Amino acid sequence: MTTEQLAKEINSRYGAVRRARGIYLYTEKGVRLTDCFLDGGRAIMGYSSGKARTQFKDTFERGANGCYPSGFESRLVTAVRHLLPDCYTEIRWWHDATVAGAQMLSGTDNGAVLWRPFLDFTVTAEKNIAGYPVPVMQWPAAADTEQFPEVIQLIPPFSWAGLPHMYAFRSAAGAAIPASDVIAAPLLVAMARAFAELRSFLGSYTDDDFARNTRALQPWFTRKGPWLFYTAAAEHYDALVLAALDAGIVLPPEPAVPAIVPFRANPGDLKKLAATAGGLQ
Predict the structure, then answer these.
(1) Strands 151-154 and 112-115: what pairing?
(2) Are 122 and 141 in contact (CB under 8 A)?
(3) Distance CA 271, CA 265 (A)
(4) Per-residue pLDDT tens listing for the chain (281 residues)
């Protein structure tokens, strides 16, 4: 199933999605859906969370939203660099993953490793003087930074259709990397704010938080942090997605994309799944 097909299935059952808040989608027919897809992880912190949307709106209303340099590129670079280990010094984004800039990834030692929050990097939350959690991040399989992946691909934590592909390069990659594509100022500001908020989000939740509300999904998924990896029969996945929709739950359209634990949902939101999908194990 594709994302477009999933959207059609939602629309045919419940109508268009008119609003999103937290982990819920609200449709024009007055139905609230529990979203375990969360835009492929871009809304992992929840829809409408934080100040990213507000900063998008404030910047948009200034009017300078065209192709001219906004000066906000450095803000996005800084926000991403503060999130990752210090050895990742070069941050780039391209709209088309097949352009020359992205093709060069195949020439790196380790290729691009897709990083999902709470996976791959281990996170130890430490508090600073102001009391905000500061995550200290390490790559668990590496003894030192020389063994870190050469390139990391990041999923921007801001729900927006058509976001660019983002990459972080170790400093050794350096000057040979092509420049990033032009992005409108409001989106640059919103993405920068979202990455800054992700830093605090990483230090605010533990595995105990993500263990909530997982029982209803355990027959089909294995949990790692907030991520749910599909482990049941591959031929049943499309049927499971449709059965979940009938129960008011949105799953990723394809099994290769992990679902996200609805740990902030009402437990009652998941009870119908056993009735609609009980035979798909």
Answers:
(1) parallel
(2) no
(3) 12
(4) 899 999 999 999 999 999 999 999 999 999 999 999 999 999 999 887 788 889 888 888 888 787 777 788 999 999 999 888 888 888 999 887 666 455 555 555 446 778 888 876 554 444 444 444 455 555 555 556 666 778 888 889 998 888 888 998 887 555 578 888 888 999 999 999 999 998 888 878 888 888 888 888 888 899 988 999 999 888 999 999 999 999 999 999 999 999 998 888 887 888 777 666 665 55
125 three-class SS: strand
What DSSP character marks residue 127? E
Locate 16 and state its tokens. Answer: 């268009």
Task: Output the CA–CA distances (angstroms, integers) from residue 43 to 62, 198, 215, 242, in the order listed.
Answer: 26, 11, 22, 22
User: Token pair for residue 185?
Assistant: 């100022």
Per-residue pLDDT at 189: 93
Residue-wise burial string across 177-207, b where 16 or more C-beta atoms lie within 10 A, e elsewhere: beebeebbbbbbbbbbbbbbbbbebbbebee
Residue pair 94/102 in contact (Cβ under 8 Å)? The answer is: yes
> What does the block give as tokens for 122?
């281990």
The distance from CA 25 to its chain's CA centroid, rounded to whole angstroms, is: 17
Q: Which ranges in the chain belong to alpha helices (H)?
A: 3-14, 52-60, 73-83, 100-103, 185-204, 207-210, 237-246, 272-277
Contacts of 171 (CB under 8 A, 6+ apart): 87, 88, 89, 90
Instruction: Please give the single-letter amino acid code of residue 70.
Output: S
Query: If DSSP codes are grouped into helix, strand and coil, which group holds residue 119?
Result: coil
- The CA-atom distances, in angstroms, between 256 and each of 66, 120, 178, 243 are 36, 17, 30, 18
